[in-house]
Amino acid sequence: MKYQLFLTRKYLMSRFIPWAAVIAVAFGVFALVTVLSVMEGFKVETRKHIRGSLAHLMVGGPSDAAMIESDDFDERVLAVEHVEAIAPFVSAAGLFKTHSGVQRCMLRGVDPIAEAKVGDFRRYVLRESEVLQLVGNRASQEIHRLPESREPMSDDEVSYLFSLESRRKLAERIGYKGFQREQPPQPVIVGIEAVRAGEVALGQIINISSFSPLTNKALVGNFLVVGAFQMGSYDEDRSAMFLPLRAAQEYLDLYDERVQEYRYTGLSVRLDDYANAEEVGEHIRDHVIPHAPKNTYLGVLTWEDQRRNLLTAVDIEKLILTWIMMLIVGFAGATVFLILTLLVIEKTRDLGVVRSLGATSNGVVGIFLCLGCILVTLGLVIGLVTGWLFVTNINEIHDWIYATTGWRLFPPDIYYFTKIPVAFKPLDLLITLGSANVFGLIGSLIPAIWASRQDPIKALRHE
Amino acid sequence: MSSERLILETKQLRRAFSSPGGKVEVLKGVDLRIREGEILAIQGPSGVGKSTLLNILGLLDDPTGGDLFFYHENGRATNSTRISGKGRAALRNDLLGFVFQFYHLLPDVNVVENVMLPTMMRCSWWRYGRRKKEVRERAMQLLARVGITDRATHKPSTLSGGERQRAAIARALMNRPRLLLCDEPTGNLDMETSEQIHELFTELNETLGSTILIVTHDTHLAAQSHRQLTMIDGRFDTPSVAATVTE
Description:
The structure holds two protein chains of two kinds. Chain A is of the alpha+beta class. Chain A has helices at 2-14, 17-53, 73-78, 112-118, 121-124, 128-136, 155-161, 164-174, 192-196, 234-239, 245-251, 277-288, 303-306, 308-346, 348-356, 361-392, 394-405, 426-452, 456-461, and strands at residues 57-60, 67-68, 83-98, 101-110, 125-126, 186-191, 205-211, 218-229, 240-244, 255-256, 261-264, 266-271, 299-302. Chain A contains 19 helices and 13 strands. Chain A is elongated, with a radius of gyration of 32 Å. By secondary structure, chain B is of the alpha/beta class. Helix content of chain B is 36%, strand content 26%. Chain B has helices at residues 50-57, 85-94, 111-122, 125-146, 161-173, 191-208, 219-223, and strands spanning 6-19, 22-35, 39-43, 65-71, 77-79, 96-99, 179-183, 211-215, 227-232, 235-236. A six-stranded mixed beta sheet of chain B has the order 6-7-8-3-9-10. In chain B, strands 2-1-4-5 form a four-stranded antiparallel beta sheet, covered by helices on one side. Chain B is globular and about 50 Å long. Chain B starts with 5 loop residues before the first strand and ends in an 11-residue tail after the last strand. The model of chain B is unreliable at 239-247 (pLDDT under 50). At the A-B interface, helix 1, helix 15, helix 16 and helix 19 of A face helix 2, helix 3 and helix 4 of B.
């Protein structure tokens, strides 16, 4: 291989054209690395956010008022092996009036302490100072992010947020009269994006309309906005609202006169390990639900089941983009092919000379294969390094572009996240390496074989 | 200088080409023996098959009939038709040296590297790595012998025609070939430079014992060879190989 490498080095040093192939391969690999990393990040973050906002398992029925409090059903679920905590919840769709019109919202009644045990409730409920920090600095580059080191709220802080004392103090501060003696409206925690959009504000009393899932009666109620949360998923942060479980049950008219008990929508279940979700779900389905006579139609869903469509869509999107991006790498392979073919034509006489000096046809293959391998490897390394540097700094680059031009490439009101998610996966690296090598090899091998089949006598006469 | 030891022998060598007008036979039964240490000149008008013969002798082309034997130093003969592609490449590298009319130096490689190239092809990676300095020294010695040491690190494009041909001769001699095949070596040179190349061939033959086969139109160069053969219509003008010796 020594003369092949020697000639390869000389050909690379003496002309620019082969480097165009390096640029093409580097660009293809860069694009593939960037897209695969962002799509993988999108997948991971989507799962993370869903997992944070949903419990490992959800037990419920077809109606938003499927379950009855007096059942010992929750105790039975808690007794199942691998179940660590449970939390009842109520959910219902609603509408609320803003100064500019009517907005939809998803009401969720929770027991804050219990909810904190089955999900990341304490982590995404914000302190007032944090809300002001996020909403008050709209021009800041850090506007959408909370520091990773942020201390989650304690149980006491969460309980206090929903307490009467907290509501009274807030009402007094805002300047509402009469709430020292009367009961202030029930508290509600709204999403940070709704606050940012100016639809609601801390201390505001909002009017929410809905229908009772039990009686189907139209309902209207006033609620005091006592706090905000940031789950990190734009849709949730714009439309979800949390209120105390009992307040939600009363507002939604979920008191069942027949059984003299309140109804609720379902149970959130946290497991010791999500890997046990299928097994535990099956156990609850087979052994716990059949013993709940008044809850015949109950079912169990994992958080993946609850967001199956979204997760599948994200998987398919990544797969399609991978194939599309591989076309760019294929184009880079075609560039290698064209450039090496041009080089074979240009160096035809050289090929005749090296054959006359004792090179075999395989040796000639080696020259161009060696050249192709070097071009592809260089392009691959440059593409991987620049791609890695780009994706690890993608949010800084995005923020810089935004600060410089005012143009937001990744607006949170369109995409699902407040920052561009990125994640590396060994399989994606293998796909990148594999596709670049395969296309590069094909692009090099064809001209190399063609070069080796040149008649040395004709090659020597080549002008 | 010549001995009786044969280097190469052809028997009724034929070469025909297919063309749209039909089959064209260029070599029509060439008998030739080349002895060690001789300078042999082949002359003849254009199109009689001189270059075709040289290409076949240089294992760049295959005959369509007849035999071509290469004699090893132990006297054993090998028929070219029985040599594999790899074996033919090895013979071109070890046994033969080519000098072309248009020099055919690699333009991206400097003069000394052009000269080193045949040895680079011959050695294994490991062996070449260890011998690189030695190989370069030999290349420099050959450049000194052909008188262009000062041009060693120059690119061929910066050399005159005579210098390029000297570099090509140095390259052809690099692996100590038993036979130098020269196709119109002075065909592209002026009178004075051609004379210098003649002298160089004679000197190489006398000092190194190089066997040289020259295909040429240059009667002056042919006259300085030990033997002259004239090709007419695809064969030598005299039927007997022995009878062609004019010396």
